[in-house]
Amino acid sequence: MFKHILVPSDGSELSKQAASKAIEFAKESGAALTFFHARPIRQGYFLGERALFQRLEQDEFEQLGQAEAKEILDAITASALAAGVQSNSVSVASDAPYEAIIQAATDNGCDVIFMASHGRRGISGLLLGSETVKVLTHSRIPVLVYR
């Protein structure tokens, strides 16, 4: 079956639930995990589920993004460790998270991407877009979607 699973996380409650299920899945299948977070490059993009309402110096913005990525990834990596599942974590800056997810899966030798879907439909799905749909559309690596 799968030997190395990439698990993207944006820090949302749904992505935390998906990470938890991915840990269970990896434990049952004996797979290793790579947790992944894409940080925004430019202000005006979201950091996790929070928008930045004030302009920051670019260095301060990058530090804030790195700190949030570390917080998100450390929490799920600790859960994997507690479950006895081998894992590591990666974060990169990208304004195209779906591209960064696919690249991270390729770079880390992952054979599946396990990610959450917020299940947005209709006009909200059209306007907000979906990184999951973009990954599904563009990835040559299999994708498991948790909803």
From TrEMBL:
Bilayer-spanning residue ranges: none
Family annotation (SUPFAM superfamilies): Adenine nucleotide alpha hydrolases-like (SSF52402)
Organism annotation: Dechloromonas hankyongensis
Domain of life: Bacteria
Family label: Belongs to the universal stress protein A family.
Domain UspA, residue spans: 1-147
Source species taxonomy: Bacteria, Pseudomonadati, Pseudomonadota, Betaproteobacteria, Rhodocyclales
Record's protein name: Universal stress protein
